[in-house]
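Ticket #4471: structure output looks truncated?

Reporter: J.K.
Steps to reproduce: submitted the chain below (89 residues) through the standard prediction queue, then opened the result file.
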Amino acid sequence: MLLARQEPARLSEVDRLRYLAYQHVLFDSSEVAWIYHEDEVLEDATWVEWAEWFSAEARRRPVFGRVENRANFTGPGFRAHVDRILGVE
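Returned output as attached by the reporter:
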């Protein structure tokens, strides 16, 4: 994780793919929470806690993990949500 954060270009192809899979779990579970909130299944208070944790965690992790996983996000609403959180235009 440290190498991925500090020097992602030094990762072997296997380690890069492994890290992307690890990152995918964060974004996939967060997308499910986002959908549940949008569908009013997840209460606002729970969503706020989740969203704050996700925002901090997503900002802490290397950008390439988000960029390369972005195509796997199910819908444009969640992509826009992540872009908004991370300040991506």
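Triage note (M.O.): checked the attachment and the full token line is present. DSSP finds five helices and no strands in the chain.
Status: closed, working as intended.
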